[in-house]
Structure formats: C-alpha cells, structure tokens
Amino acid sequence: MWHRETQLAQVGIHADPSYGSVSAPIYPSVTYQHGPEGLGPFDYSRTGNPTRGALAEALASLEGGAGASLFSSGMAAIHAIAATLKQGDHVVLTEDVYGGTYRLFEDTFTKFGISTTYVNTRSLSQVRASMRPNTQLVFIESPSNPLLQVSDIRAISGIAHESGALIAVDNTFMTFLRQRPIELGADLVVYSATKYLAGHNDVLAGAVIARDPKRAEQIATIANACGGALSPIDSWLVMRGLKTLALRLNQQESSARQIAQFLDNHPGVVRAYYPDLGTDEDIALHQRQATGPGAMVSFQLPAHVDPGYFSSRLRCILPAVSLGGVESLITHPYTETHRELPEAIRIALGIHPGLMRLSVGIEHPDDLVNDLETALSL
Ligand SMILES: Cc1ncc(COP(=O)(O)O)c(C=O)c1O
C-alpha cells in the first residue's frame, strides 16, 4: 500500500475507463441509458454518480473504512448519521461541539423524540455516567471546536460499545492524515469536507465514512432517501483539493505551531488553546491518538479588548467563518460559529466574548505573526 501522500496525489486517476484522463472526468448527467439487460451500474445521479463515486472510493480507502457517502455539506453528513436514530433514542455529544451540530440535534431531532446529553468528553467518568439504556449514539469531536479539548477516542469507543451504542467522530479538524478514528474504534467518521479536505474555501461538502459495509450501506440508503448528495462538479473540486492536502496541512500545521507559541507568550493574550499547549495529560493523549496538533489555534483576548476592533486591525488574516482553507481566517465563536449555544452554556464552556478562533492558512508564517502582533499592540 502506498503512503497516503501518494494516494492523495493520485486520487481519481483511474476514474476514466474511456480515455484514461489523469483528472477524473466530471459526469453531469442525471440519468443513464439502460441496456437490454436493464439498469447498469448507474441509473440516477442522486443514487450514484461516477465522479462522486471516485471520490467516495478514495475517501473510504484513505480513512480505512468500508465505504463513504458524500453530501452537499458537512451538516447534511451529520444529518445522515442522526437519521439512523429512531424515536426514543438518546445521544451523548461533546459539550463544545460545533454550533451547527448542536442546532441540528436540538432544533430538528428533539422534535422526533430523540434526546441528547452534552458532556465534557475529556472526562471518561462523565461519558460513562451519561450513558443510558437507550443511548444509541456517542458523537464526539477531538480536538473540539473551538477550545481544542482532547477526548480519548479509543476509551470512549469502548464505553459506547459496552452500552451497545455507535460512536461517530467528527474528524474535520485533524483529517485522516493526523488522526484515524476507525483504527481507534470509531464506527463512523464524519467530515465537513468544506474545510481541509477541499481546502480552498470554494466548495461546500460533507462525508461519512463507515467502518463496516452494512453501516456504509445504511448511510448510503439515507443519503439517497434524503437527497443531499454532493454534485459532480463539487465532487471533482474536493478531489482536486485532496491532491494537495498533505502539502497544505504540513505547511498550515508548521505555521500554527509557531503562531500558538507566539500567542502563548504574548502578554496581550490571556490564554492560547492548541493541542500542544494543554496539560501534560492532554498533550500525551493527543500524541497517542494523533500524529500532529493540526492548524487551528484559539486564544482569549483580555476583557478590555473589543474583538471586532481587534479583527478590523488585521490585514492578512481575514475575519470570516469557516476554516481549513489556504487563506487564514479568524472567527469570533461567541457571536458566530457557536452563537446557537445558549449564552450560559457558552460561558460555562469557556466560549467567552474575548475568544478568537484562528484557522491558519498557507501564507508565510512571519506575515501571520506580524499581523497578529500589530493587531495586539492596541
Ligand atoms: C467541526 C465541524 N463539523 C461540521 C461542520 C459543518 O460543516 P458544513 O459547514 O460543511 O455544513 C463544521 C462547519 O464549520 C465544523 O466546523
């Protein structure tokens, strides 16, 4: 088996049986002619499409799963996982989960009689205590968004499985290049492929990769039934992005390390959050289950600094939501990505008005540090 970097560079190259094109062909056709013997491998593009199929095959292999389904956004992918549940089921989630995930479960799925408990998944005793006889799903992010808290994927998988529940890991921040949840025991891995996988802030996409074929089939059936399939052109854009994922992530992570150190040492920053900056225990855990800290850094501004004014002083880093692309973006989780969480919960979790979340891009790290330095020298 090739290294992942090689697999990534070659994503989609065998997808053209007609001409052997190196770039996977984009098949916009919605429907496919039947031969005399009936339907062929493709009949209708919501159910299956050769371009989307090439991407699904690549992702399943890269993640080490049995199959992948591609969706028109990360939220559509998480929705498909939630749609495996039935009335009366209970879900345990990481407490500082992405705000959109919180909104999906609270606004949509509670209406269908699905209950939730949000816990600090860093604490295995809290996870264990939150499991109920009807818990069918444990949904975690590690490191979490935006506080980059690390949870023990292998141990939580064990707790979930002991109770007969599935475990899904949102691996958006790490990607399979840094963290492999299926090898750690997860049943499902979910992505906002909008982020690092596509990598250019120009496509909205989601993916679910399942450990076993039956589960992969179940997710594919839900994808077909609900209809949020990834379009052929967007599938192609994700494939094109994947080819440079290793290069991008190496650069982004190396710059993020430098920036996290800079922020951690800066007197104008109350606290910096990065997987390399946690407690010794957290660092050791992250290093056991992931091969790098990634490229997301959060930091707390002092109470007297207006986050809006701070962001307006940045020249290189763009104030914008989203993450994982080539451009560095800074977000204010309190009013943006996590605004769906009730204020008391935000504050209790540490998502304070002064918290900033930085997605480090591929710009020269010195320019990013200088930009932050200038904005911090208020
Ligand atoms: C960790 C995480 N998961 C899921 C999502 C949702 O993905 P999308 O915006 O592609 O629907 C996001 C979006 O920011 C995210 O940060």
Describe this structure in words.
The strands form two sheets. This protein has a seven-stranded mixed β-sheet with strand order 1-7-6-5-4-2-3, sandwiched between helices. The protein folds into two domains: 4-242, Aspartate Aminotransferase, domain 2 (3-Layer(aba) Sandwich); 245-376, Aspartate Aminotransferase, domain 1. 37% of the residues lie in helices and 15% in strands. The longest helix has 21 residues, at 245-265. α6 links the parallel β4 and β5 (166-170). The chain is an alpha/beta fold. The model has no long low-confidence stretch (mean pLDDT 96). The site of pyridoxal-5'-phosphate has 13 residues, from α3.
Features:
binds pyridoxal-5'-phosphate; Aspartate Aminotransferase, domain 1; 378 residues
> SSE string, helix = H, strand = E?
HHEHEHEHEHEEEHHHEHEHEEHEH
Q: Report the major sheet.
A: 7 strands, mixed
CATH C-level category of the largest domain: Alpha Beta
Strand ordering within the main sheet: 1-7-6-5-4-2-3
- Which outline best applies? globular
Number of domains: 2
Ions, cofactors and other bound molecules: pyridoxal-5'-phosphate
Strand proportion, as a percent range, falls in: 5-15%
Which class do the helix and strand fractions yield?
alpha/beta
CATH architecture of the largest domain: 3-Layer(aba) Sandwich
Helix coverage percent of residues?
Answer: 25-40%
Average pLDDT confidence is 96
The stretches of 5 or more residues where confidence is low (pLDDT under 50) are: none
CATH topology of the largest domain: Aspartate Aminotransferase, domain 2
Measured distance between first and last alpha carbons: 53 Å
In DSSP terms (H or I, runs of 4 or more residues), the helix count works out at 13
CATH superfamily of the largest domain: Type I PLP-dependent aspartate aminotransferase-like (Major domain)
